[in-house]
Amino acid sequence: EPTVRTELMEQIPPIAIFLQESRPKFPTAFFEYLMPIVVRYLTDVNNQVRKAGQEALLILLEQDLVAQSDIENKVCPILLDLSAPDSDDEYKVEAVNIICKMASMLSRTTVEHMLLPRFCELCSDGKLFQVRKICAANFGDICNAVGQEATERLLIPKFFELCSDSVWGMRKACAECFMAVSYTTSPEVRRSKLSPLFISLISDTCRWVRQAAFQSLGPFISTFANPSSAGLYIREDGTLSIRPSAQDVNSNSCQPSNNNITVMSSSANAA
C-alpha cells in the first residue's frame, strides 16, 4: 500500500539519526538497509511516496547523514536518469527540483562535476516550460553552489537564454534572482554583461517582469559596492544584509536601527 511506504519514508530520518548516535552498535545499518530504500523510493510509481522519499533525502543530506560515496554512486545517478531527455515528464520535473534543492548541501566538486552539466541541459529544455521555470527560479542558488569560475563559464550563457525566454514567468524568475547571480560574478562581468541584460528585463514588454526587475534593482546595484566599505554581505540563506558598524554596535541609542534590513535574493520567494 502506498500509504504504508509513505509512512515508512517519514520514519527514515529519525531512525537514521538514532543509528548515527548509536554508530558503535550499528556501524553499517543505515548504509546497508535504509539508504537503498530511500534511493528506491525516488522512483516509486506513487507520487506521494516519491515526495516523501525526496523529503527524507533532503533531511538526511541536511543532517549530513549520507556518505559522499552514496551521494555520488547512488543518489546522483538516479537523479540523472530521472532528469534525462527521454524521462517521463512528471519524474523529470521532480528530479530537477530535487537537484536544485540538493545543490547547496553538496560539495562544490560534486555539484560541478555530476549535476551542473545536466542542469545546463535542463535550462534549455524545449519540451517542458516547468523544467525551465524551476531552473530559472533556483539559478542563483546553483551559481552560489559552484562559484565564480563555473558560473561565468557555463551558467551565464544559460542565464541569458532564460532571460529572453518566450514565457514571461521565466523572465520574471530571472529578475527575482538577478542579485544572487550577479553576486557570484566578477565586477567586469557585472558591468559588461549583466548590466545590459538587466536593462532588458527592466524594459520588458510584460509588466510583471518589469515589476520584478524594479524590485531587484537596488539589490543588483548593491553587488557593485565594495563589501568592506559598504558593509553589505550575503547571508547563508541568500539574503542581502547590512553589517552594523562598530559605532552602531557600541551605541546605546533607543532609536531602531536599519542594520537589520534584509532583501531576499534567492529564488525561495519566486512565484
From TrEMBL:
Residues covered by region (Disordered): 248-271
An example molecular function term from Gene Ontology annotations: protein phosphatase regulator activity
Pfam (any one): HEAT
HEAT repeat residue numbers: 115-154
Keyword entries, A-Z: Repeat
Assigned GO CC terms: cytoplasm
Coiled coil: none
SUPFAM superfamilies in the record: ARM repeat
Entry protein name: PP4R1 phosphatase
Biological source species: Regulus satrapa
